[in-house]
Design goal:
single chain; 408 residues; alpha/beta; four-stranded antiparallel sheet; four-stranded mixed sheet; 12 strands; 49% helix
Length: 408
Amino acid sequence: EPAADPRTFAARQKSTTDTVRFLEQNAGFPLRAGQGLVGALEELAIEGRPLDPLALRALADFVDSVERSRAGILGAKGEFPVLSALARRLTSFKAEIGAVREAIDGSGEVLDAASPALRGIRESLRQRRQRLRQTLEQFARGRDTAKYLQEEVITERNGRFVLLVRAEHRANVPGIVHGSSASGASLFLEPAATVEINNDIVELEEREREEIFRILLALTDRFRHRPGDVRAVEEVAAELDVLQSRARYSTRVGGVEPTFVADGSFELRGARHPLVEQPVPIDVVLDPPSRVLLITGPNTGGKTVALKTAGLFALMAQAGLHVPAATARLPVFRSIFADIGDEQSIAASLSTFSAHISNLVSMDRALDLPSLVLLDEVGTGTDPNEGGALATALVQHFRQRGAHLIAT
């Protein structure tokens, strides 16, 4: 947002220039904000709720990217006061980042190494599942038992490993039925010999879920219990991202730092409208005590582009952007108005002329000095003689009110 305060204007321009110089000599800031990061940061405020594994990885990667940006700034040769001040607001999360990466892989899987308890539970699970599979395979392939099966496959039903037994042989296979096929011809049966093993597996899986919950909550709380430091990471990351964008834009358009002037002068030399392909550089100058510039000339002569260039550059400068010009000296405006184009509206019963008048009235009411007023083809849309007289009156009125005015 454009700033209307000279000190903010100066600070923003200094920070953009500082970043341009940094990027000329160093790599950019390696900021990373993965999918789910915003939700993860919001959930840190909910006590007792762990982040899911992928959200924790996204948070750790984000914080790590900010820390690497900090290291790049503080380790760079040269003086970059704005960036250095930002970097020094950060405190290290090295231990927290390391703990997350040791516990969770890039796909979001909680690793066995996350805790000794989890490793032990999973080892027991592997042993029980192997024993279960061996028992079921012996049953499925046994000469005396395979004949009772619909198919020699092992499947899962309600979290239990079962065999597909023909319904008519239910009495020949002791065990627990967990359902039947759609036709009723087959039963999902858990043999009695595997019930205890299945029970162990279910219990171990519940213990695994509880241990994973505990691990994720502990990892989350390491970030949650440092709310001020996490907030600083968010704020610095946002500021670095904006600064990097402004600096890269300046480099792309060949921008210069505009200078703030308190004497009311408005001077653009070699200004190139950034949205026009192959623009012709122009000079737009208002030297005190003159505050009015009238531009005349043929159609397609560049009058409106000159008008828009002046307004756009003022807004860009106050938003902290460098401007594509040879030099730029500007006041800091508290209000900027433009009446450009045809705003007629049948729905609002506005003709071209009345739409312009309505817009001009609203400008006059909201005028706050220092102000820049841009009027394109002022007085148009009515009788040429009356329009010319009205245009003269409007220009004089805004001049007397103390505004800077550029009109075509």
